[in-house]
């Protein structure tokens, strides 16, 4: 896979499609561009006449591990701006779900000249959703370093997987300063503490005034605690002129995927398998702009 260096770290990417405006498609969590369910959506969008950029964000897939910035999403937004500069591309369409939605929103806020359109779904918010992110993505590594130093990170499955995909990551982990890592982790963790005036974690609501591009929002499922319906409605109010639509997948698709995974049974709904169902609505929205 091609890669470029941004802020001292390698970023792996690929582009689907030969012509058309560029869509940057970003998944959630710390999942790579190869997470099941993402490529079918990318291929459907490419089939609709667009080029689609898939990328491994820092700490995801085969890209380099990096730790800096106000939050992990701030780091990703800065990385994406650098990636687009290295690729010498003009303004792009940003599309993302879950953590990818937050990354896309923040990139639009911080680098508005880079974005022409914004498409969002599965937006994380609420007490359960934000606390869950901090507990899953920050606390384990913070606790490991406090107890065992950097050696603790090397024992964790998450970081062993990053080393398996990119052997350079072992040395990048070993070179971390434990004290500085703890400070950064506490800062990143603080972003996931729900606060008044922050509909999405770590971002003040006033920042939404910077989003001035056509925006499509697919609302959260009725009972989805990770991506609450309420949060998507609030974001639609904060982004002036945005378009809000019902999800094209079943209301309980996310809950079914979580239940299937927890019980170890064959999944009727992979966490991202339903995303391809949004392709017609996304293409329609972009075609009407």
The rounded distance between the terminal residues' Cα atoms is 33 Å
Instruction: Supply the number of helical segments.
Output: 12
Q: What strand order characterises the main sheet?
A: 1-2-4-3-5-6-7-8
Largest sheet: 8 strands, mixed
Low-confidence stretches: none
Oligomer: single chain
The shape is: globular
Question: What is the number of E strands?
Answer: 8
N-to-C order of helices and strands: EEEHEHEHEHHHHHHEHEHH
**Helical coverage, percent range:** 40-55%
Beta-sheet strand percentage?
5-15%
Q: What Rg, in angstroms, do the CA atoms define?
A: 18 Å
Overall pLDDT confidence: 95
Short description:
The chain is α/β, with parallel strands linked by helices. The protein contains twelve helices and eight strands.
Provide a descriptive summary of the structure in words.
With 289 residues, the protein is of the alpha/beta class. It is built from 12 helices and 8 strands. It has helices at residues 38-47, 72-86, 99-110, 126-137, 139-148, 150-154, 157-165, 168-174, 178-191, 229-238, 253-262, 279-288, and strands spanning 3-6, 9-16, 22-26, 51-55, 92-97, 115-121, 215-218, 243-245. An 8-stranded mixed sheet has the order 1-2-4-3-5-6-7-8, with helices on both faces. Helix 1 links the parallel strand 3 and strand 4 (51-55). Helix 2 (72-86) crosses helix 3 and helix 5 packs antiparallel against helix 9 (178-191). The longest helix has 15 residues, at 72-86. The radius of gyration is 18 Å and the shape is globular. Residues 23-228 form the AB hydrolase-1 domain. InterPro entries: AB_hydrolase_1, AB_hydrolase_fold. This is Alpha/beta hydrolase. GO terms for molecular function: hydrolase activity. Keywords: Hydrolase.
């Amino acid at each position: 896979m091609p890669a470029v260096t941004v802020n001292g770290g390698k970023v792996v990417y690929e582009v689907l499609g030969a012509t058309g405006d560029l869509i940057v498609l970003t998944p959630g969590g710390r999942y790579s561009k190869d997470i099941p369910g993402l490529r079918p959506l990318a291929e459907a969008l490419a089939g609709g006449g667009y080029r689609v950029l898939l990328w491994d964000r820092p700490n995801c897939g085969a890209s380099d591990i990096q730790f800096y910035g106000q939050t992990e999403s701030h780091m990703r937004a800065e990385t994406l701006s650098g990636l687009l500069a290295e690729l010498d591309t003009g303004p792009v369409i940003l599309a993302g779900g879950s953590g990818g939605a937050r990354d896309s929103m923040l990139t639009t806020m911080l680098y508005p000249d880079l974005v022409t359109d914004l498409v969002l779904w599965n937006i994380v918010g609420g007490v359960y959703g934000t606390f869950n992110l901090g507990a899953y993505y920050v606390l384990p590594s913070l606790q490991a370093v406090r107890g065992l130093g950097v050696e603790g990170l090397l024992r964790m499955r998450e970081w062993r997987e990053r080393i398996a995909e990119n052997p350079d990551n072992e040395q990048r982990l070993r070179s971390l300063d434990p004290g500085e890592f703890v400070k950064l982790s506490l800062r990143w963790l603080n972003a996931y503490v729900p606060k008044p005036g922050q509909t999405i974690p770590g971002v003040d609501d006033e920042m939404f005034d910077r989003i001035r591009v056509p925006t499509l929002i697919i609302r959260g499922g009725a009972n989805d605690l990770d991506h609450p319906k309420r949060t998507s409605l609030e974001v639609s109010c904060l982004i002036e002129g945005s378009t809000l639509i019902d999800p094209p997948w079943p209301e309980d698709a996310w809950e079914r995927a979580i239940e299937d995974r927890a019980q170890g049974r064959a999944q009727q709904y992979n966490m991202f398998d339903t995303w391809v169902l949004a392709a017609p609505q996304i293409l329609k929205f972009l075609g009407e702009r």
